[in-house]
């Protein structure tokens, strides 16, 4: 089952709406990636698998586009993402 937008966008304050729209778009793209990769794993037809994986890769680009916009619009998100990156690097080193 595909994800549902976790909030009612009509109830979001106007100054936060665009950020929430971008977060919903990222969720939708991750759903699409998961769907296409799961379908690709299920099919025996290599042509179908190839196309599904190619489309999944394009969706990953879309995630990057939406995420880049979100990071530009939400400095706190950008800072926390960097903190998360540092924490992972520390744990893995």
Element layout with pairings:
Blueprint lengths: L13 H29 L3 H28 L1 H18 L1
Helix pairs in contact: 1-2, 2-3
Descriptive report:
The protein is mainly alpha-helical and about 90 residues long. It has a domain at about 25-40 and about 60-75. The chain is built from three helices and no strands. The protein has helices at about 15-40, 45-75, 75-90.
| Strand coverage percent | under 5%
Strands, count? 0
Low-confidence stretches: none
Count every helix, treating DSSP H or I runs of 4 or more residues as helices.
Answer: 3
Taking the alpha carbons of the first and last residues, their distance comes to: 37 Å
The topology string of helices and strands comes to HHH
Structural class: mainly alpha
Radius of gyration: 16 Å
- Percent helix: over 70%
Quaternary arrangement of the chains shown?
single chain
Largest sheet entry:
none
What key attributes describe this structure?
mainly alpha; globular; 3 helices
């Amino acid at each position: 089952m595909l994800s549902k937008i976790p909030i009612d966008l009509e109830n979001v304050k106007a100054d936060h709406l665009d950020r929430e729209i971008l977060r919903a778009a990222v969720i939708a793209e991750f759903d699409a990636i998961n769907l296409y990769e799961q379908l690709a794993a299920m099919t025996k037809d290599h042509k179908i698998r190839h196309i599904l994986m190619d489309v999944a890769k394009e969706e990953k680009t879309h995630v990057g586009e939406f995420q880049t916009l979100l990071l530009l619009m939400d400095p706190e998100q950008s800072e926390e993402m960097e903190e998360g990156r540092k924490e992972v690097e520390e744990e893995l080193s």
